[in-house]
Amino acid sequence: MTGLADTRAGLLPGWHGRSRGWWSDAGENPTTLLCLGVCDVSGVIQGEQCAFLEMFETRQAASQFVVVPDHPIAPCLPILLDQLERTPAQFQAIADDVHAYFRALSTPPSPDDWMFIGTMLSVMRHTPIKDDYSIFSSNGIQRTGPADAVLVSLAVEPQSILRHRKLGYYLHVMRHYQAAAGPAVRTWLATAFETVKRPVETIKQDYERLIDGLHRTTGGHLMVLNRMSTSGYEDISSYMGFDAPLSDTLSNIAAKEWNLMLTDIAESRDFSIIDVDAMAAQLGGAQHLPDGIHQSGLMQVALRDSILRGLSDLEQVKPPATAVN
Asked: What is the pLDDT of residue 37?
């Protein structure tokens, strides 16, 4: 048993490194959407049964949907860039350093520690953005290339992140997964890493690097869920009591700045913004997006429609890929 296992009820449940579903007729090559985020992404795409049923009910074209979970490392931009750019030699150096640290402990790591370490290294070794896929249809098994579109979430981006003191790689672990780790891992995170701030300009540069890296390596198109910037219930009458910059302490101010940052990037880069903020304002954020992450059913329908329209627009400008049998 481990607290890292986010097994959910639904069709074919289990603790998976990724979940995917597709449909296509013989000779068709489905458009693939890769989803990298937390609950705001996985809930919309996987739906109530965690089986993509709502997506397939809405979209009739040949499609494949892939969701990579956030255990134990959340897929924020520094993590995705590390995965995209890391060489096998660099990963081996990380693995050797981790093994050396935990072998040297006077008290053996607990089962929770080992589960966390193994899962963490598995996530770091893989690069979901570069994955290709086997699918089967009435024609038999065929291979498809990397995802045509990659969906990420602005809500998963932290204002500060852990950076390894010696090797320089990043980790971002959500609190519930930190709690699932054992005492040795928690000590390692506290001593082997330093916390570095991520101002909005740094996040902007990371998005630009990811968009450019996608175009260069796979030709994939980035789609980004922005953030709800206000619930409509903020009651601050004066900002005099808050230190500048306000975005360091007020999440609604940070959300506004980060949403504007995405529109700035769109002036020079080709990617899609899924406007969560506008949908929440129209439907009512307090009712349909109360914590800024978990959507109501109506909100999820609106987001699915927007994402699928983006996929359809992408198919109009991209030539069809050829499947390899």
From this structure: 85
Beta strands across the sheet bearing 193-197: 170-171, 160-164, 193-197
Confidence band of 244 (pLDDT split at 50, 70, 90): low
Is residue 225 within 8 Å of 274, Cβ to Cβ?
yes
Q: Are 113 and 184 in contact (CB under 8 A)?
A: yes
Distances (CA, A) of 31 to 28, 196, 319: 9, 38, 11
Closest CA to 80 of 260, 224, 247: 224
CA 311 to chain centre: 18
Q: Kindly report the CATH number assigned to the domain that includes residue 208.
A: 3.40.50.1110
At residue 302's C-alpha, the angle toward residues 263 and 69, to 5°, is: 80
237 occurs within a structural domain: yes
Give 36-71 pLDDT, tens digit per residue: 988 889 889 999 888 999 999 999 899 999 999 999
Dist CA 51 CA 13 (whole Å): 9
First to last CA, the chain: 39
Count up the domains in the chain and report the number: 1
Q: Angle, to 10 degrees, between the axis of helix 276-283 and the axis of helix 297-317?
A: 140
Reported pTM: 0.90
What does the angle CA 113 – CA 114 – CA 119 come to, to the nearest 5 degrees? 105
Average pLDDT over the chain reads 90
Q: What percent of the chain has pLDDT over 70?
A: 91
198 to 195, 201, 258: CA distances (angstroms): 10, 8, 12
